[in-house]
Amino acid sequence: FWGLASLRMPVSEWSNYPIDRKELEFYYNIAEQMMLVTKTLYPLTQTFLSRLWEGGFPEATITPRAEN
Prior knowledge:
Blueprint: H1 21-34, E1 37-38, H2 43-54, E2 65-66
Antiparallel strand pairs: 1-2
């Protein structure tokens, strides 16, 4: 149903949310630690991200992932 992914809520969604994003940061970090999520940026990922930023997509971000 979610493609085996449960991503953090995008920044754009927080504007109308009843709680502040920083309130959930602590819980996001605990969950990601338990699921062995990595925020490692591989060279190809960095290249794509840089091109997106240069191409006018400043909101492009790293998507943490859990891999086994």
